[in-house]
Amino acid sequence: MEGCETVEREVDRVTTKIRNVQNIFSREANKLCDQLNILRKEFGEVVDENYVLSNDQSSILLETMSRVKNLVGRLATDHRDFHSAVSKVGKAIDRNFNVDFGTITRDGIFSGERAQILTQVVCQHLYRQGLLDIGEALCQESALNLEPKYKEPFVELHRILDGLVVRDLEPALNWAYENRQALNAQGSSLEFKLHRLAFINLIKLGPRHQAEAIHYARANFSQFVSKHEKEIQVLMGSLLYIPGTIENSPYSYLFDSALWDDIHETFIKDACARLGLSVDSPLAVCFQAGCIALPALLNICQVMQARQVTNIWSGKDELPIEIDLGKEFHYHSIFACPILRQQASETNPPMRLTCGHVISRDALHKLASGNK
Question: Where are the beta strands (DSSP E) in the chain?
């Protein structure tokens, strides 16, 4: 982060200098252009080919030519100064950013079966983003045969999201109705929010559709009274202002576009939970975590190289230092063995002793072998 701020300061200096020179040059150039236009107009009226400039005209012309020459010279000097300022930006980048990532990578980490897994993760990320054609092309070029179950959920998901973008609620309402039982089991309020927006859309149509809005409320809101009674009361209260200008009433917030943003996020969250998918793309999460961890890993590698202890980092499934990625990257509890000071893994899981204490399996084996 400090490196980014240093480079940003250098870039700000360059842009500020360019902006100042541009403003000064534009102002001076406009003045000279006006002066030259006046002289051209004055001399253009002369018909006599043998006309001789007066002393005043000659001095004015020479002065104008001198000003033009000085302005061009100043511009050339400032332009040369730009090169040194821009070069400082390049030096700041080289000084604060290490482009050699070879020290923190291992050869063959994505070879064999792992290469196929990586390609599958990339394809799923493309499907999540709605880039279905690109995902299909990647599968074909990499000879990856993904089952339809990997693609079909995202096709339906983006079809519904595309409808929400143009404020078409019907696809989302049909999906919510078909998955009502599962959504209720996970405590979702998606279906109610969709019906609320549909009701608000009827209110927007004016007094002629007031009866239709009441009929829609009676048909769809009764099932949500136990959980959303107050929200339904607010919606019913808004009917009093339909004959007038409801946009200027206490219920004007119902027409805020934030409700559509909320339904978009709610649908993604609940649909992913219903399909057994994470809300965020695994590839995007890994990329963000890598961006956070990369500076710390580069620094520790430089220290290890300087002290000639690079062989310390030999473990394949652990890092030489602990890196705090933030709470947003905590998806499960983490156990660190109090004896070996190592984080538990699939090959070294935590083990509970008869006394109630928990240690890693490697520590248990060492304690057992030490007591023999």
Answer: 350-352, 358-360
